[in-house]
Amino acid sequence: MENENLTKRVAVLSSPEYARCRKKISEGLDLIEFNETLQGKKVLLKVNLLSARSPENCVTTNPAFVRAVAEIFLERGAKVSIGDSPASVSTAVAAHASGIASVCEDLGVPLVDFDDPVPVVLEHGTYRSFEIARPVLETDLLVNLPKLKTHSLTQVTFGVKNLFGCVPGVKKQGWHFRVRNMKEFSVMLLDLAGYLKPSLTIIDGVEGMDGNGPSNGRIIRPGIIGISEDVFALDDAIAELFGVINSKVPILRLAREKGLVGNYKVVGDEVEPKKLSLPETNLIGVYGASLLRRLVTKFPKIDRKKCVGCRVCERACPAGAIDVSRFNIDYGKCIACYVCHELCPEDAIVFRRRIHR
Question: What is the pTM for the complete model shown?
């Protein structure tokens, strides 16, 4: 999707190691012609702090990557802060485990909690009522720093999905219960991203995850960085780069159908990463009649051999369907949102097909 006459640009850079990422990010900002005046402006770096996992697990945005971006903006005179809304622990706990708290301490930038929700009403979209963290609404520039991963519900989690973290923790559970299939969940995410309009999205693809992501998949090392002022164009370009068929991933297909992607030009380095392996959760369940969805949808199951009884899944389940003491999931309640799989620290949630009665 290249057009020399359009200003919408996506930079893709080769960065096999984090030691080089600051230089490559600066190069990418020049390539997309990011000329925003930053002196004295508040810049919020919205990282991925899914849970309390260390950098080598490749679940959260790498601290070296966050440091590089923060230093670039600080040098340009910005007032930088870093934040997210983890699903199962506090921001402080997740930031400490991920190494991002140390970055904040070293650079003297605040780590902000997203625990103060502000109701907003959108003028357009299917889903028009959200509660968004106050720091997100009060910043001058929202800089989105996702981790390149797959996701058991949305299939991929790039720039658009990372913005769901702008919804405070417990409020996210409510959305999973309200929007119960992959297609509608994707519509909601696109509405949210269209409202937030991050000034910049810089995806950490130096290391990432495929397979059954976003926390228990296979660690991969693509060695790439993606940068754009347009989050929809960036997601589309990254998907194509990794051989993801857009028509089979609702969040990507719907972005095109809604005209959110448009034309863009890819600039930067020649890179050829390996094809991304998507989760085993089945996309057919998005479409078709109710009985067909029940037959093909994969539901979570507790692996007794791996489960340590931490109850993270039980506490996070928006439908209240899990009883860890009995290793049981009530499939009459289960909505197949896969939050249990997303947050399990022991990879103790597996998938199986069954008729949901």
Answer: 0.94
SS (H, E, C) the chain: CCCCCCCCEEEEEECCCHHHHHHHHHHHHHHCCCCCCCCCCEEEEEECCCCCCCHHHCCCCCHHHHHHHHHHHHHCCCEEEEEECCCCCCHHHHHHHHCHHHHHHHHCCCEEECCCEEEEECCCCCCCEEEEEHHHHHCCEEEEECEEEEECCCEEECHHHHHHHHCCHHHHHHHHHHCCCHHHHHHHHHHHHHHHCCCEEEEEEEEEEECCCCCCCEEECCCEEEEECCHHHHHHHHHHHCCCCHHHCHHHHHHHHCCCCCCCEEEECCCCCCCCCCCCCCHHHHCCCHHHHHHHCEEEEECCCCCCCCCHHHHHCCCCCEEHHHCEECCCCCCCCCHHHHHCCCCCEEEEECCCC
What is the DSSP secondary structure assignment for residue 280, as one 8-state letter? S
| 171's tokens | 């409020």
Which pLDDT tens digit goes with each residue over 191-241? Answer: 999 999 999 999 999 999 999 999 999 999 999 999 999 999 999 999 999
The backbone torsions φ and ψ at residue 230, rounded to the nearest 5 degrees and listed phi first, read -115, 110
Class of domain 9-268: alpha beta
CATH code for the structural domain at 283-353: 3.30.70.20
pLDDT tens-digit series, residues 75-131: 999 999 999 999 889 999 999 999 999 999 999 999 999 999 999 999 999 999 999
Q: Which residue ranges make up each domain of the chain?
A: 9-268, 283-353
